[in-house]
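Repro case for the chain-ordering regression, as requested:
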Amino acid sequence: MGRRGLRLITLVAVPVLVLSACGNSGTSPSASTAASSAASSGAPASATPTVAPGKTKIVWFIGLGSGSQPNQLQAETDFVNKYNDTNTDNIFLQVSIVPNSNATDTLKTQIAAGKGPDLVGPVGIQGRAGFPGVFLDLTAEVASNKTDLTIYGDKLVNAFKMGSDGLIGLPYVLYPGFIFYNKDLFAAQNLPALPATVGTQYNGKDWTWDTLATIAKQLTIDTKGKKSTDAGFNAASIKQYGFDTQWINDLRRFATPFGAGSYVAADGKTAQIPDVWATAWKWYYDAMWTSHFAPNNAQRSAADMATGTTIATGRVAMELTWGWAMTSFGASDANGKPASKYKNFDIAVLPSNAGVTTSPVDADTFSILKATKNPDQAYKAMLAIMADSALMVSYGGMPSVPSQQAAYFTAAQAGVDSQFANNKITWSVLTEMAKYAASPTHQDPMPNYVKATTDDQAFYTKLQSKGGLNMDTEIAGLKATLQADFASAAAS
Amino acid sequence: MAIVQDTEVLTTSAPKRRLTMSSRETAWGLLFLSPWFIGLALFYAIPIIISFVMSFTDFNPVNAGAVKFVGLANYQWMFSESATVSSFFITLKLSVIGVPLGLFAALGLAIMLNQKLLAGKRVFRTLFFMPVQIPLVASTIIWLDFLNGSSGWLAYILNTFQDIFITLFGGLLHISSPYTPIAPSWFQDTSWAVPGLILMGLWGIGNAMLIFLAGLQTVPTELYEAARVDGAGAWQQFRSVTLPMISPVFFYNLLISVIGMAQYFTQPYVIGGSSGNPGGETLVFNINLYNEAWKYNFMGHGAALAWLMFVVVLGFSLVLFRTSARWVFYAGGER
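-- result from build under test --
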């Protein structure tokens, strides 16, 4: 090769190297392949087919909450394809699917670059919390499109009104809190089934958190068969626990079943710890470190406790958990067999505290970004997404519209039937618990929301990780930390 | 026509200026280096400048249009912020204990592997270096299981020894069942999380060990022979010959370890997430920085924290360089 040829190759190679280092592959995957590769690789994916002339493109961002699981991708792809072929509003819907772990950062980057989507969801309060002031108040769209909000009821609609941000979503699916219980472990101790309605007594006693603690102690057994109430019980070698929480990572979620409250006082800037929450945390701390009927951090993260997914082990009699956990109760392993080590289970209403029953209800919705250039089309697309029953089933939540709930329970029972023989779930517990939804919610807005939540989570693991703490001192410390967070938000 | 003629005259009278061989080589060299220069500018120089500017603003990525200049407010904020102070001291604690421990452990291993009498040196070198090659996330997850206070191998070993001991001597010591297991819960216990991170860090000392080993092998054997002739024992040889001769290597490893601690993020993040679980004990400086910038959207806070860390590391490095004249010895007398 001559000198001129070498120069030519060099001149071509340098820009190619630079561009390949800085750019991406530039390929345009199809909706389904992009979605599946996104779920596995962690990279965002979007279907980028050509928008037909005269149509308005609406980008739907999925992953901030539910929606990026493999079993949900097919339902989403099917819906988008059908909607793009049939809608009469000249809307072209494009999905952008990002795995949940990357979704917040990806969305922030897109918004900062001025390339945010039009529509986001399904997403809960926690997922939206990192984006204050970003979402559109839907009040005008509701009025111009004559959307009937009476089907939801005022209480539910008001739960989506976020202070100065206004109505940032419409009720879509609900996930009430409840008690999961392992019927086989109850039967082994000759204990009857737990109450399915609020106000029903248990074994002649009011169904309270103290009653739950009493039976949880009877259901906690060490490796030598001694109950936690027996002399010589070995707390360092427990075979079966009476109680645990499943997929709770913050104290507000744990405390709200003892009573609704808020970290922030009515003035919007003063930190407070509601008395019922302090009661709840002391109850839980005692359960882990004194009564030993709930596993602590080391015990629940052990390999033989499914590294925290304790509900699956069959070694916990009762679990405080939520509606969104229902989809994983019947989860199967790689061989198609049930991953869970229990056979018979049901759900029960939450116990009361001081005569009041309260359920922290998670509520997912869709939100439209303020920056969208097409709010009306985005709203119309959002209504279509919310009306699709297949999508709703794939997201696994109880519909917020009462008339749609029976169909959801039938589909959910079919899912249970495919894994557990003759295990009928008392689905009415979910509707019963929705009636006792906490107000304010367990994810009530507060200044410096994400930071305050992070401090709350750190405190939660501290309680789970260290015995012998003075709870009053610790709670006062949390209050001071939260006050500093609120002050920091005010200063910023 | 006249013009054409003039041009021809000009062309012939002033020959085309040709680059010299050295200039051409420089030009080609720069051309070949240009991807690196472009990368340096795009991914290092420009972000460094932007982060410095950002540290004086209240930039919020979800409300980028409302950015405003806040002067030194972000720098004032960080000294009053409890998470910043606590995360700084957690990192300092890890550095003060972990860095010397890691260096001396690496040096100890290197000395052991430099012994003539040791059989299977290559096997041991490979084994001790191997952890360096394992991706940090994977190795951290393995350590999480290994150190689990309830089902981890270490807990199993310690508790088994305890059971045997109490079976044999429990009667004499008046210890009866049930007794509290001896094994700590490491990353599930607020008191043991930092020691757990230090223990985990000791596993990855293969790089420092290898550098020490290379340093040890450059020490001239004549010096040891001369020391022996003068009656020096093993400890005196180590103190008066080995340590001074490998002091440049020690200096290098110390500097790299300190810089490594300033970048410490992956292991505590995998273990405790962004909350620094358990109870904020694994919230090191860089996780706090990450939280402020990307989780809480206070990019100005994050940028200010990054510059604080830069200043601290720069200051420490300068102190090291300044004091090196007193304790680092170069064979040729050069520094």
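Ordering looks correct now. The two ends of chain A are 64 Å apart (CA to CA).
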